Amino acid sequence: MTCLSQLIHQFVSDLPDVQRVVLAVSGGVDSTVLLHSAVQAKLAQPLLVLHVNHQLSPHAAQWQAQVSDACHKLGVPCHPLMVEVDPAGRGLEEAARSARYQAIGQHLRPGDLILMAHHRQDQMETFFLRLARGAGVRGLAGMAPVREWGPARLGRPFLTVDRADIEDYARRHALTWVEDESNTSARFDRNFLRLHVMPLLQQRWPELPAQIGQAMGHLREGDELLREFAAADLLECQPRQERVGVSLTMESLLSWSHPRRYNLLRHWLTQLGYRLPARKRLEEVDLLLRAQQEQNPLLHWGDCEIRRYRNRIYCLPAGWQRAVEGLPQNCSAGESVALSNGGRIEWTAQAPGLPSGTYTLLTRRQAPHITRAHPSGRAHSQALKKLLQEYGLEPWLRDLVPLFLLEGKLIAVGDLWIEKNSRSRFRSGSSVVVFSATFAACLI
What we know:
- By secondary structure, the protein is an alpha+beta fold.
- It is built from 14 helices and 23 strands.
- The protein folds into 3 domains: 196 residues, Rossmann fold (3-Layer(aba) Sandwich), CATH 3.40.50.620; 82 residues, Chorismate Mutase Domain, subunit A (Up-down Bundle), CATH 1.20.59; 121 residues, no CATH class.
- Helix content is 38%, strand content 20%.
């Protein structure tokens, strides 16, 4: 067993509960060596190769065929993945990477460990690219040897291996690989570093790749420490699931320093699965926290939005309002209803509640003629707008709150209240249920 094969064997063995090893193989020298050395490692887990065809090169079909042929000779199943790359708004490199990761992610399952062939020089290039973009501690820490990826894990066993050692392995084993013609184009940032910057730096400081790797290790330790602090701060902010999205109390955030506040927000967004905004966008939170409530402060951060109501800040998925289009016109009490947007309406037995039957379901926006309501237990009716405020419904949900009607008469308002005297319209002994799901069940 070669040194690289031993490295892969030890790398996989050190991780618990690996059920399958998935190899990302482009056909270049690095991933070709990864494939060959993984086979030589004689792992206990089955192997699967995923090859992403970006369809950007006139030779893409040839590369796919070569990878498939190599896998066939080694007895490893290969699954080609065709992707469409749209560079609009983010550049070709980032668009190709995003398409590649999305395609691979769709084929991962619990227990998978996907291996990629990034090596020491790739790590160094990543460091300088992120440095040029003004990255913080987490970004400059570079690529982690192992990280979670959906239900699976992503591993990079070659991060401490020099590119020269990988190329030497390929020559010694007479491997064949493809050469991407785009690798010689300096118009791509990574290629510019590889072709023009790194050779000069390593000529001056031959040990630079190893030293940068050591510095990135220190940065990863610092990032882990910041995450531990942020996890404790998150608990102090009392995270809470809301009708749509989640929220934090503002009290601690207002009392903390800017670095501590931003560290908590980064951790919170990461836990929720959202992309991290730039530092300037994070600074906008200071304005949101101190804005007057009647201004209805709102920050759009790409795949999410940040709002504030009373003493809490809210994080909602971008475009959550579109889900209201899935509300049905008729809804049968007692039956779970699947919405067109993937959400559901659930009913739970309660007393007092609504008798079983088929109700007309409209949002407040769809029923502007309903301006007053009379919750059970109250002596008088009041303006619906005032009641929604009193019940603490977030302002951005008030036009979307589901209204349950029977024969044109308001029977209940979302999961907030049942109308007074509504039950008197039904026969005694009717099955009693009430819509008690959160708005999240209706809207997202």
